[in-house]
Design a protein that fits this description.
The protein has helices at 17-47, 53-80, 89-95, 108-128, 130-135, 139-163. The chain is mainly α. This is Dps family protein.
């Protein structure tokens, strides 16, 4: 006879179930958008052409590497809050407000514009979560969001700088 599995232990970290669910919903959107932006950036790294090829190819690689390294801490924060992290393309497509990479690679400066808009959008998503995080006194999530906003705003600034005439 098979043993019954024990119920999951109760999570008691000082944040209510309702507040954790609200925070996780926001973090899930942040995760989906970060992953979507990662895929777009990697796609552009592979497909960039033109006179700025070397510099954009290297910059996109640095950016997609940073984004790749960002998804794990976001997913692990979701797990720390007692929820499953989304992780499928279908879930990410449903949660993300970012468009997928264009099927036909755009010109280099259009790639830069798309990535700039993506980083600004992810910064807005992270910032929008602060009221719920503050209400719940969820300092670890606040710290994570502050780090993500800093990266996305700085990256957007660098990309905007390339677009200036």
């Amino acid at each position: 006879m098979a043993k019954k599995s024990a119920a999951a232990p109760t999570l008691s970290i000082g944040i209510s179930d309702k507040d954790r669910a609200t925070i996780v919903a926001g973090l899930s959107k942040l995760l989906a958008e970060t992953y979507t932006l990662y895929l777009t950036t990697h796609n552009f790294h592979w497909n960039v052409t033109g006179p700025m090829f070397n510099s954009l190819h290297a910059m996109f690689m640095a950016q997609y590497t940073e984004l790749w390294n960002a998804v794990d801490p976001v997913a692990e924060r979701i797990r720390s809050l007692g929820h499953a992290a989304p992780g499928s393309y279908a879930q990410f497509a449903k949660l993300s407000g970012l468009p997928d990479a264009p099927a036909t690679p755009p010109k280099a400066m259009e790639m830069v514009r798309i990535l700039k808009e993506g980083h600004e959008a992810v910064a807005r998503t992270a910032r929008a979560l602060f009221p719920a995080v503050d209400k719940a006194s969820d300092e670890p999530t606040a710290d994570l969001l502050t780090q993500r906003i800093t990266v996305h705003e700085q990256t957007a600034w660098m990309l905007r700088s390339l677009l200036e005439e």
